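Appendix C: a fully annotated inverse folding record. The material below is reproduced so that readers can follow the format used throughout the book. The structure is listed first as C-alpha coordinates, followed by the designed sequence.
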Protein backbone atom coordinates (compact mmCIF):
# COMPACT_ATOMS: atom_id res chain seq x y z
CA UNK A 1 0.00 0.00 0.00
CA UNK A 2 1.70 3.21 -1.13
CA UNK A 3 0.49 6.53 0.23
CA UNK A 4 1.26 9.71 -1.69
CA UNK A 5 1.16 13.15 -0.13
CA UNK A 6 0.17 16.15 -2.26
CA UNK A 7 1.07 19.22 -0.19
CA UNK A 8 0.51 22.83 -1.08
CA UNK A 9 -0.80 26.26 -0.25
CA UNK A 10 -3.75 25.84 -2.63
CA UNK A 11 -4.65 29.53 -2.34
CA UNK A 12 -6.79 28.84 -4.29
CA UNK A 13 -6.73 25.35 -5.83
CA UNK A 14 -6.48 25.56 -9.64
CA UNK A 15 -7.20 23.14 -12.47
CA UNK A 16 -3.44 22.51 -12.53
CA UNK A 17 -3.63 21.24 -8.94
CA UNK A 18 -6.70 19.15 -9.82
CA UNK A 19 -4.85 17.57 -12.75
CA UNK A 20 -1.84 16.60 -10.62
CA UNK A 21 -3.98 15.33 -7.72
CA UNK A 22 -6.22 13.28 -10.04
CA UNK A 23 -3.22 11.70 -11.73
CA UNK A 24 -1.72 10.99 -8.31
CA UNK A 25 -4.98 9.28 -7.27
CA UNK A 26 -4.73 7.16 -10.43
CA UNK A 27 -1.11 6.21 -9.71
CA UNK A 28 -1.01 5.48 -5.96
CA UNK A 29 -3.06 3.39 -3.53
CA UNK A 30 -3.92 6.25 -1.19
CA UNK A 31 -3.61 10.00 -1.50
CA UNK A 32 -3.47 12.64 1.22
CA UNK A 33 -3.95 16.23 0.06
CA UNK A 34 -2.34 18.46 2.69
CA UNK A 35 -3.12 22.17 2.93
CA UNK A 36 -0.36 24.07 4.70
CA UNK A 37 -1.54 26.14 7.65
CA UNK A 38 1.01 28.89 8.14
CA UNK A 39 -0.33 31.60 10.49
CA UNK A 40 2.67 33.80 9.61
CA UNK A 41 1.54 33.99 5.97
CA UNK A 42 -1.32 36.18 4.76
CA UNK A 43 -3.54 34.14 2.51
CA UNK A 44 -6.50 35.07 0.32
CA UNK A 45 -8.61 32.15 1.56
CA UNK A 46 -8.38 30.89 5.14
CA UNK A 47 -7.01 27.43 5.81
CA UNK A 48 -10.54 26.21 6.58
CA UNK A 49 -11.87 27.64 3.31
CA UNK A 50 -9.12 25.95 1.29
CA UNK A 51 -9.73 22.70 3.15
CA UNK A 52 -13.48 22.91 2.45
CA UNK A 53 -12.97 23.59 -1.28
CA UNK A 54 -10.57 20.66 -1.71
CA UNK A 55 -12.81 18.36 0.32
CA UNK A 56 -15.74 19.26 -1.93
CA UNK A 57 -13.59 18.65 -5.02
CA UNK A 58 -12.14 15.28 -4.02
CA UNK A 59 -14.77 13.85 -1.66
CA UNK A 60 -14.01 10.20 -1.01
CA UNK A 61 -11.18 10.00 -3.53
CA UNK A 62 -8.51 11.53 -1.30
CA UNK A 63 -8.09 12.43 2.35
CA UNK A 64 -7.91 16.21 2.60
CA UNK A 65 -6.23 17.58 5.73
CA UNK A 66 -4.31 20.59 7.00
CA UNK A 67 -0.82 20.54 8.44
CA UNK A 68 1.59 22.91 10.10
CA UNK A 69 5.28 22.60 10.81
CA UNK A 70 7.69 20.61 8.71
CA UNK A 71 6.29 18.63 5.82
CA UNK A 72 8.60 15.70 6.58
CA UNK A 73 7.24 15.47 10.14
CA UNK A 74 3.69 15.47 8.85
CA UNK A 75 4.59 12.85 6.23
CA UNK A 76 6.01 10.71 9.01
CA UNK A 77 2.84 11.10 11.13
CA UNK A 78 0.59 10.16 8.20
CA UNK A 79 2.77 7.28 7.05
CA UNK A 80 3.16 8.82 3.59
CA UNK A 81 5.75 7.10 1.40
CA UNK A 82 6.24 9.80 -1.17
CA UNK A 83 5.56 13.48 -1.80
CA UNK A 84 4.12 14.33 -5.22
CA UNK A 85 4.55 17.83 -6.65
CA UNK A 86 3.53 19.22 -10.02
CA UNK A 87 6.10 20.97 -12.19
CA UNK A 88 4.87 23.57 -14.65
CA UNK A 89 7.92 25.38 -15.90
CA UNK A 90 11.68 25.66 -15.51
CA UNK A 91 10.98 28.46 -13.02
CA UNK A 92 9.21 25.94 -10.75
CA UNK A 93 12.01 23.46 -11.06
CA UNK A 94 14.71 25.31 -9.15
CA UNK A 95 12.75 25.84 -5.93
CA UNK A 96 10.94 22.50 -6.07
CA UNK A 97 14.25 20.72 -6.56
CA UNK A 98 15.74 22.49 -3.53
CA UNK A 99 12.73 21.60 -1.38
CA UNK A 100 12.88 17.97 -2.52
CA UNK A 101 16.56 17.79 -1.65
CA UNK A 102 16.01 19.45 1.76
CA UNK A 103 13.20 17.01 2.54
CA UNK A 104 15.43 14.14 1.48
CA UNK A 105 18.22 15.50 3.68
CA UNK A 106 15.89 15.87 6.68
CA UNK A 107 14.21 12.49 6.59
CA UNK A 108 15.00 10.59 3.41
CA UNK A 109 11.54 11.51 2.08
CA UNK A 110 11.21 10.82 -1.66
CA UNK A 111 9.65 13.42 -3.95
CA UNK A 112 8.13 12.51 -7.30
CA UNK A 113 7.60 15.28 -9.83
CA UNK A 114 4.65 15.14 -12.15
CA UNK A 115 4.77 17.22 -15.31
CA UNK A 116 1.73 19.47 -15.40
CA UNK A 117 -0.38 19.14 -18.55
CA UNK A 118 0.46 21.85 -21.08
CA UNK A 119 -3.11 23.19 -20.75
CA UNK A 120 -2.31 24.34 -17.22
CA UNK A 121 1.35 25.33 -17.47
CA UNK A 122 0.53 29.06 -17.27
CA UNK A 123 -1.97 28.70 -14.42
CA UNK A 124 -0.81 29.61 -10.92
CA UNK A 125 -2.77 30.47 -7.80
CA UNK A 126 -1.14 33.91 -7.65
CA UNK A 127 -2.10 34.76 -11.26
CA UNK A 128 -5.62 33.46 -10.70
CA UNK A 129 -5.95 35.73 -7.64
CA UNK A 130 -4.61 38.72 -9.56
CA UNK A 131 -6.83 38.23 -12.61
CA UNK A 132 -9.90 37.71 -10.41
CA UNK A 133 -9.07 40.75 -8.27
CA UNK A 134 -8.77 42.92 -11.37
CA UNK A 135 -12.10 41.76 -12.74
CA UNK A 136 -10.87 39.24 -15.34
CA UNK A 137 -12.43 35.86 -15.95
CA UNK A 138 -10.84 32.77 -14.40
CA UNK A 139 -13.50 30.52 -15.86
CA UNK A 140 -11.97 27.25 -17.05
CA UNK A 141 -8.82 27.79 -14.99
CA UNK A 142 -10.22 26.78 -11.61
CA UNK A 143 -12.94 24.35 -10.45
CA UNK A 144 -16.47 25.80 -10.25
CA UNK A 145 -16.42 25.79 -6.44
CA UNK A 146 -13.31 27.98 -6.51
CA UNK A 147 -14.70 30.33 -9.15
CA UNK A 148 -17.83 30.85 -7.04
CA UNK A 149 -15.76 31.42 -3.88
CA UNK A 150 -13.59 34.01 -5.68
CA UNK A 151 -16.69 35.83 -6.98
CA UNK A 152 -18.26 35.80 -3.54
CA UNK A 153 -15.08 37.11 -1.87
CA UNK A 154 -14.57 39.88 -4.44
CA UNK A 155 -18.19 41.05 -4.65
O1 LIG B 1 1.88 25.21 -3.09
P1 LIG B 1 3.26 25.51 -2.61
O2 LIG B 1 3.33 26.92 -2.10
O3 LIG B 1 4.31 25.15 -3.60
O4 LIG B 1 3.52 24.56 -1.33
C1 LIG B 1 4.71 24.64 -0.63
C2 LIG B 1 4.71 23.68 0.57
C3 LIG B 1 3.47 23.87 1.42
C4 LIG B 1 4.75 22.26 0.07
C5 LIG B 1 5.99 24.03 1.37
O5 LIG B 1 5.99 25.38 1.70
C6 LIG B 1 6.14 23.21 2.64
O6 LIG B 1 6.49 22.05 2.58
N1 LIG B 1 5.86 23.84 3.79
C7 LIG B 1 5.96 23.20 5.09
C8 LIG B 1 7.19 23.70 5.87
C9 LIG B 1 8.43 22.93 5.46
O7 LIG B 1 8.52 21.72 5.56
N2 LIG B 1 9.43 23.68 4.97
C10 LIG B 1 10.67 23.12 4.46
C11 LIG B 1 10.47 22.63 3.05
S1 LIG B 1 11.93 22.07 2.35
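Designed amino acids, in order:
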Amino acid sequence: MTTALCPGSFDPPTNGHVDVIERTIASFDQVVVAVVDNPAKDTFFTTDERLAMLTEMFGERARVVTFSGLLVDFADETGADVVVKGLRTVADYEFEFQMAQMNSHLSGMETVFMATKADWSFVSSSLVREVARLGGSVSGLVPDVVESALKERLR
